TrEMBL record:
CDD domains recorded: UBA_EF-Ts (cd14275)
Stated name of the protein: Elongation factor Ts
Cellular component annotations (GO), alphabetically ordered: cytoplasm
Keywords: Cytoplasm, Elongation factor, Protein biosynthesis
Region: Involved in Mg(2+) ion dislocation from EF-Tu, residue numbers: 81-84
Gene3D superfamilies the UniProt entry points to: DNA helicase RuvA subunit, C-terminal domain, Elongation factor Ts, dimerisation domain
Length: 153
């Protein structure tokens, strides 16, 4: 099957990975778009392993209020540079982590990373972060979070 720029663009829009990565994935998947996306996710996790020892000093603090003010989450998500902290992918990851914490109430970061992602039970939060590391090319860590529920002590 021919690898066209439109097919590469489609995979890029679905995954957020670079053009050359999308082209390579389509070539290795013999044009199968679903398999190409799976390959990109696997490669992203593999890339994250190489970056896990890099220091994370930049990032952002994200907040989320749920249920008309009944539950609130505050998370500190770190990366290597301010440039990555300002990307939509990084901001979206912080938001999704807040949603996860709000709904699943993990007791600590270790438990959070092991949880199944609420939007895709075939993916853990740790793997979701690793995929984002693969896309953005920088180490990402959850530094801390707090979840508060109205009336909870």
């Amino acid at each position: 099957m021919k690898i066209t720029i439109d097919r590469i663009k489609k995979i890029r829009e679905l995954t957020g990975y670079g053009i050359m990565d999308c082209r390579k994935a389509l070539e290795e998947a013999a044009g199968d778009e679903k398999k190409a996306v799976e390959l990109l996710n696997i490669w992203g996790i593999e890339k994250s392993a190489k970056k896990k020892d890099r220091e994370t000093k930049a990032g952002l603090i994200q907040s989320y209020i749920h249920g008309e003010g009944k539950i609130g989450v505050l998370i500190e998500l770190l990366c290597e540079t301010d440039f990555v902290a300002r990307t939509d992918d990084f901001k979206n990851l912080a938001h999704e982590l807040c949603l996860q914490i709000s709904s699943m109430n993990p007791k600590d970061i270790k438990e959070l990373l092991k949880q199944e992602y609420i939007r895709d039970t075939g993916l853990t939060i740790g793997d979701m972060i690793k995929q984002t590391i693969g896309k953005l090319g920088e180490n990402i860590t959850v530094s801390r979070f707090v979840r508060m529920q109205l009336g909870e002590k």
